Amino acid sequence: MHAFVLPILGHDRGISASVIGSILGAFAIAAAVIRVVLPVIASRASERNVILVSTAVTALVFAVYPLLDSAWTMGICSVVLGFALGAVQPMVMSMLHQITPHARHGEALGLRLMTINASSVAMPMLFGSLGALIGIAGVFWVVGGIVAVGARATWGLKV
Known about the structure:
The chain has 159 residues and is an all-alpha fold. It has helices at 2-12, 17-44, 47-64, 71-99, 105-134, 136-155.
């Protein structure tokens, strides 16, 4: 969602394409940096807790993003979001291997990949339609709300 909707929000705020690209680049760098630090975090926190905190941070960032006007504040949000989302994927993979029966790991990984690929096709259409209906800020808030509701489901995960 971030990579698709941020350029629209940035353009709406009068931010140049090169600065928007830098904001997206900051997200990617943060996602890579957190993965270097993740072993230290994983030694001190469970997968469930990292996923829960990352989900809550993501929901908060999506709630705040549409309220920002400057490239610097959007860049800070992008970095925070990069840290949060960069930490989730490895933890999801670890948790998936722990909670899935050994004989069904391939199935679980296949379903995960299928869902990610399907969302890569469907989400831009959905967000574009939703943005045309309620505005770009509304898209951030709706997705942030959905992520916040998902945080509750994360709390119930048992490893």
